[in-house]
Design goal:
Distance between the termini: 41 Å
Largest sheet: 7 strands, parallel
Bound molecules: NADP nicotinamide-adenine-dinucleotide phosphate
Helix content: 40-55%
Radius of gyration: 17 Å
Order of helices and strands: EHEHEHEHEHHEHHHE
CATH topology: Rossmann fold
Number of helices: 9
Number of domains: 1
Oligomer: single chain
CATH architecture: 3-Layer(aba) Sandwich
Strand content: 5-15%
Structural class: alpha/beta
């Protein structure tokens, strides 16, 4: 199909806020129609979709808790019904429940693994069939430098993010012959709601570990995601790109 007749569609989980919102906007700027998923924050999702539409593309919002397989299946059914295809899947939805291991509950371990890792698995599973049929797909998973290096107080989160790297590489090998790439973007310390909640002292200490000496902005991560979503990255698969100001070198 030529680019004149085809509008590619991107589905972004957790597109309502933070990095996910910036990814939606960057992909809209690149001409993608955007399916904006959110968990509970409908108003924020609506604002993301309106900003995408203002850039001249179609955008719709879809509520779904990615930690629930039946909601992921429904999310894809609804997105495919609305857009006809899903070319790009960005597994961005993520949560933290930080605690040192002695105090970390099984519930908080499961919550983080279920959302960050199993959520991506459910969405990849739902995306694989339509992408295989169209013999084109781009899967981009938001991991973290913490998944590469570990972090005290984040055994659950780092396990989920390290798991995502393994998932990405295996998927890349499994789906390559069908024209589908799978890559991961590993942000360092990015200025979003997730990190705003940290105590000031912890933020200052974090900045000290970043060679570029400042937190990243969601847009800086979004540009790396958009690269992996583009035609230009077609010969790159199974990679992890750190967007971290040099933090994980
Ligand atoms: P954020 O500002 O806290 O936003 C989280 C997003 O995920 C929201 O859109 C939220 O939707 C959605 N979400 C949460 N649970 C969900 C669920 N069960 N189902 C569907 N959506 C769900 O987070 P962020 O900082 O932008 O992080 C985005 C991704 O980057 C995450 O995977 C995070 O682990 C990763 N990351 C972030 C940093 C950082 O420094 N910020 C660093 C490394 C990696 P609602 O608005 O509806 O709640």
């Amino acid at each position: 199909m030529s680019n004149e007749t085809l509008t590619r569609c991107a589905l972004v989980t957790g597109g309502s806020r933070g990095i996910g919102r910036a990814v939606c906007l960057e992909l809209a700027r690149a001409g993608f129609a955007v399916a904006v998923n959110y968990a509970g924050n409908q108003q924020a999702a609506q604002e993301t979709a309106e900003s995408c539409r203002a850039l001249g593309v179609k955008a719709e919002i879809f509520a779904a808790d990615v930690s629930r397989p039946e909601e992921c299946a429904r999310l894809f059914e609804e997105a495919l019904a609305a857009f006809g295809r899903v070319d790009v899947l960005v597994n961005n939805a993520g949560v933290t429940r930080d605690s040192l291991i002695l105090r970390l509950s099984e519930e908080d371990f499961d919550k983080v693994l279920d959302t960050n890792l199993k959520g991506a698995f459910f969405c990849c599973k739902a995306a694989a069939r339509p992408m295989m049929k169209q013999r084109f797909g781009r899967i981009i998973n938001l991991t973290s430098v913490v998944g590469l290096r570990g972090n005290p107080g984040q055994t659950n989160y780092s396990a989920s993010k390290a798991g995502l790297i393994g998932l990405t590489k295996s998927l890349a090998k499994e789906l390559a012959s069908r024209g589908i790439t799978a890559n991961a973007v590993a942000p360092g310390f990015i200025d979003t709601d997730m990190t705003r909640a940290m105590p000031e002292a912890a933020k200052a200490a974090m900045n000290g570990t970043i060679p570029l000496g400042r937190p990243g902005q969601p847009e800086e991560v979004a540009r790396a995601v958009a690269f992996f979503a583009s035609e230009e990255s077609g010969y790159i698969t199974g990679q992890v790109l750190c967007v971290d100001g040099g933090m994980a070198m």
